[in-house]
């Protein structure tokens, strides 16, 4: 169901965008990179953070640690925490490990780390643990409406 939702969303945006279905599940950036034969940094990890009742989806290169102080700057005052698995599913419509920054179940602010600009192609999750989407940062920003900012420690 999730892969079909992602595919339908992508087709409306650009007929040439199609998820890649891998031979096995890739719940981590490292696993996806190994299966694709690329650097871990090229895997765009999507992390749902919350601060009080505000949620935001933060997307960064697989080798980057997202600075929670920078997350707090975007989400407001309060303690920043990673969302629980239940919250991830409720807010994004995807299971942890398969969260893509588009075709979301609810409207969320999306923040894209400038670290993704190092590569001509990055790979986001595409709705299920064995799927990814090859895309560049410019197109990803257009597709998601996300803001490109520095999220790194």
Automatic annotation (TrEMBL):
InterPro entries: YbaK/aa-tRNA-synt-asso_dom_sf, YbaK/aa-tRNA-synth-assoc-dom. It comes from the Bacteria. It comes from Fictibacillus iocasae. This is YbaK/EbsC family protein. Residues 24-142 form the YbaK/aminoacyl-tRNA synthetase-associated domain. It holds the Pfam family tRNA_edit.
């Amino acid at each position: 169901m999730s892969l079909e939702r992602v595919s339908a969303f992508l087709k409306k945006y650009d007929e040439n965008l199609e998820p890649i279905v891998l031979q096995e599940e890739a719940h981590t950036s490292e696993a996806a990179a190994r299966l694709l034969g690329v650097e871990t940094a090229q895997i765009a990890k999507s992390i749902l953070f919350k601060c009080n009742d505000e949620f935001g989806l933060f997307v960064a290169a697989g080798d980057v640690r997202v600075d929670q102080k920078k997350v707090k700057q975007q989400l407001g005052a309060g303690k920043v925490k990673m969302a629980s698995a239940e919250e991830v599913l409720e807010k994004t419509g995807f299971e942890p490990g398969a969260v893509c920054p588009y075709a979301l179940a609810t409207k969320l602010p999306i923040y894209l780390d400038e670290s993704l600009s190092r590569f001509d192609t990055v790979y986001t999750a595409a709705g299920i643990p064995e799927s990814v989407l090859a895309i560049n940062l410019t197109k990803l920003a257009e597709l998601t409406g996300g803001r490109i900012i520095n999220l790194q420690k």
